[in-house]
């Protein structure tokens, strides 16, 4: 078990060592540790080796000049200048928040960025300002549209954070697919099969093999098949792609560059890097702050009182599972799997740092 | 078969006859006929009898004073004053569009409204202004959160319309459940069973009975069960409820009043009427207009080229099925089922009007 502080310091030190500005190194450490604390280890320390190697290969600009390309009072298009996604995303969300302070809401789309970690982090930035926060990103293509066998879309997550009063906030943060890439990987490593409705093979036949992605297979949109509404999942997923990339001038759909060092970017580009979309809405644009928070508390209390179906656990409010993990990791520390520890020791070693405390 | 013009004139005349202002009667006819033309007959002429009886019972205000309760440069809260949902919604979307002209985007939440027909109609209003349009609404509770057997949420649709250039626009308009209420009704009338993953009985057990809703059953969120990501569908669906009702001051979740005359509103209220949420974003807030449209065309062309899985039809762009129906109904006319014709003759008769041409 590691303490969050130790992992944060290590991560900060590592990104400082390769030359990231203090602020960006801190942002990277904040976002990666937020994922670990919230139990989303697929977006935590496990990513550091890939990020490091992406930088080594010259695919990340660690001295970016992140800037606004175009704006109105309520919107902006941001050029991430090839930065680590966290740096570009945090700056973009801050711009959305600043615009919301002026005109009620702010909406920012970001081009020329890269993998930004958990979408929830950026949506939750809005909470401190008594705002609703929204964050989305496109991602490398693994998902097939309804009826298709082609990998056209990423797992394109959406995060929405809404402040409450006495209760913790509502925080939804989910991939627009029935299963995340990270979960498939774990099932594959464990040699397990998965239920139908998650993936298909290269010809588009249903599959229960979690490793089918490595053989040209694809992930299905939320809903699974057309009968069960996968066209709605496809709508949602493709909307995220358009908001993140068509709006911003980033690569869309199948042209999103891979975010891992061992896969090259496709020859054809339809924009720059990958894209994100952020929104911030002041709660007092809609209600007096206290009224809004009381209403959200009432909403949360109402939904907590939903009756569970036989044999099912209590009904959750979006954000509950991640908060439970935050409590647990604060008490017990953060566990890393051996493969991640090994990666971190390697990366640390090649930079003259060490990763060994436990 | 009926011509759209005949049905439009009839609908306009009917709502004029009960005393609606010209503009509102025209809006009601426009929205109901848009549904019929687009093949969404569950939201077309079939609703007229309910709307008429809701008015007869004094549950609709046909001389509403729809007004802005609160605003910032980019947002507004609208009081629908108990109007037909179409009247409140069209006015609200117009305000969102006007605000977007000023500050790039406009966002409006509406309280004290009622059933507004197809969400797609309002999102598509933005297209004419070279804007992206968004529309959502909450609805009477039939959907159970993940793990629950309680009906807490409506089928809460989301519509997003995005302009393109040479191609028709991208128009997604979908309930955030795997199946719509209307489809269940039809299956029930035909005496058919449905697949698992759509509904559950009053105890929360999986059911294949399309009529289970009448026996205390509920509709599942998009995804079906927790294993297949229904918590994501629940997030999406509950988000629509919060944006539409917590933001606006309408009734949320289980307190949304029924939109049919034979069911009374619950005693407890958490706001006024039902709620909607609308957004408009100028495409030139993000890109030069022509650039944006070219990029959307390129996106659409790319996705049309997705390879179909074996035995599957061509991959669709959101909006394709409804446009195909528009072409068909323009050529062949609009078919109404006998029960609807009977209802329309009855309503017409009681108003001294006639419905008989075919």
> Which structural class should the secondary elements of chain A be placed in?
alpha+beta
Measured distance between first and last alpha carbons of chain A? 6 Å
CATH fold descriptor of the largest domain in chain A: Ribosomal Protein S8, Chain: A, domain 1
Q: What kind of assembly state do the chains in view correspond to?
A: homodimer
Quick overview:
Chain A has helices at residues 4-17, 22-37, 48-56, 85-103, 119-125, 181-189, 230-246, 289-304, 320-332, 338-350; strands at residues 67-72, 75-79, 105-113, 131-137, 158-162, 170-174, 199-200, 206-207, 218-219, 274-282.
Keywords:
Hypothetical Oxidoreductase Yiak, Chain: A, domain 1, 10 strands, homodimer, alpha+beta, Wheat Germ Agglutinin (Isolectin 2), domain 1, seven-stranded mixed sheet, 358 residues, Ribosomal Protein S8, Chain: A, domain 1, 37% helix
Note down, in words, how this protein is organized.
Two copies of one chain form a homodimer. Chain A has 358 residues and is an alpha+beta fold. Chain A has three domains: 1-62 and 336-358, Hypothetical Oxidoreductase Yiak, Chain: A, domain 1 (Orthogonal Bundle); 64-177 and 227-318, Ribosomal Protein S8, Chain: A, domain 1; 179-219, Wheat Germ Agglutinin (Isolectin 2), domain 1. Chain A contains ten helices and ten strands. The first copy, chain A, has helices at 4-17, 22-37, 48-56, 85-103, 119-125, 181-189, 230-246, 289-304, 320-332, 338-350; strands at 67-72, 75-79, 105-113, 131-137, 158-162, 170-174, 199-200, 206-207, 218-219, 274-282. In chain A, strand 5 (158-162) and strand 6 form a beta hairpin. In chain A, helix 1 (4-17) packs antiparallel against helix 2. Chain A starts with a helix and ends in an 8-residue tail after the last helix. At the A-B interface, strand 1, strand 3, strand 5, strand 6 and helix 7 of A face strand 1, strand 3, strand 5, strand 6 and helix 7 of B.
């Amino acid at each position: 078990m590691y303490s969050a502080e130790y992992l944060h310091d290590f991560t900060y030190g590592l990104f400082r060592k390769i030359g990231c500005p203090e602020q960006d190194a801190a942002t990277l450490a904040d976002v990666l540790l937020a994922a670990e604390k919230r139990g989303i280890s697929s977006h935590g320390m496990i990513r550091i080796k890939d990020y490091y190697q992406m930088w080594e290969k010259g695919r990340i600009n660690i001295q970016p000049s992140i800037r606004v390309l175009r704006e109105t009072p309520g919107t902006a298009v941001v050029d991430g200048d090839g930065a680590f996604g966290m740096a570009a995303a945090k700056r973009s969300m801050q711009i959305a928040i600043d615009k919301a302070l002026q005109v009620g809401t702010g909406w920012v789309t970001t081009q020329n960025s890269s993998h930004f970690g958990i979408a929830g982090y950026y949506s939750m930035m809005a909470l401190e300002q008594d705002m609703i926060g929204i964050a989305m990103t496109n991602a490398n293509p693994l998902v097939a549209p309804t009826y298709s066998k082609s990998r056209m879309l990423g797992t394109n997550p959406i995060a929405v954070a809404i402040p409450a009063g006495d209760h913790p906030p509502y925080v939804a943060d989910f991939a627009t697919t029935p299963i995340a890439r990270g979960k498939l990987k774990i099932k594959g490593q464990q040699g397990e099969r998965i239920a139908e409705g998650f993936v298909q093979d290269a010809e588009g036949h249903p599959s229960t093999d979690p490793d089918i992605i490595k053989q040209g297979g694809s992930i299905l949109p939320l809903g699974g098949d057309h009968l069960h509404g996968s066209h709605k999942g496809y709508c949602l997923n493709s909307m995220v792609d358009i908001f993140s990339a068509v709006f911003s001038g980033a690569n869309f759909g199948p042209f999103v560059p891979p975010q891992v060092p061992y896969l090259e970017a496709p020859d054809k580009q339809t924009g720059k890097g990958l894209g994100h979309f952020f929104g911030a809405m002041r709660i007092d644009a809609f209600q007096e702050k206290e009224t809004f928070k009381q209403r959200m508390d009432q909403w949360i209390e109402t939904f907590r009182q939903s009756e569970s179906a036989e044999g099912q656990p209590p009904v959750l409010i979006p954000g509950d599972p991640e908060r439970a993990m935050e409590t647990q990791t604060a008490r017990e520390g953060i566990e890393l799997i051996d493969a991640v520890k090994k990666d971190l020791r390697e990366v640390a070693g090649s930079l003259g740092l060490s990763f060994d405390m436990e």
